[in-house]
Amino acid sequence: IHAIEPEASTLMEVAQFIETAMDGHEGKLAAKIDLLAGCGAVYCQAVGASAVQQLLVKGIQPIKVPEGTTIESLIGVLQQELRAEPRLDG
């Protein structure tokens, strides 16, 4: 989890989710989504319909990216967008 500003980014937290079988215990997804509380978006290579719904309910935008996409490149794009956007706070 990164905090991203126009000119800097800070690694706030690291979480690793292991692959789990769809074994009827899909409630495990809620704990993963809870970890993302306060995030504006989550980048993922794959995301199911249930996960998309749960993320959106929490105000988190899921964004699919191709395999091999680097975190650094995603942060760079976000920072460019932040620098280009007019700021409302002054």
What does this structure look like?
There is one protein chain. This protein is an alpha+beta fold and 90 residues long. 34% of the residues lie in helices and 16% in strands. It has helices at residues 28-35, 49-57, 71-84; strands at 2-4, 9-11, 41-44, 61-64. The chain has a two-stranded antiparallel ribbon with strand order 1-2. Strands 3-4 form a two-stranded parallel sheet. The relative contact order is 0.18. The model has no long low-confidence stretch (mean pLDDT 87).
Order of helices and strands: EEHEHEH
Strand content: 15-25%
Tally of DSSP β-strands: 4
Shape: globular
Spatial strand sequence of the major β-sheet: 1-2
| Low-confidence region ranges | none
Write the topology of this structure:
Blueprint: E1 2-4, E2 9-11, H1 28-35, E3 41-44, H2 49-57, E4 61-64, H3 71-84
Parallel strand pairs: 3-4
Antiparallel strand pairs: 1-2
Throw out a few tags for this protein.
4 strands; globular; 3 helices; alpha+beta; two-stranded parallel sheet; two-stranded antiparallel ribbon; 34% helix; 90 residues
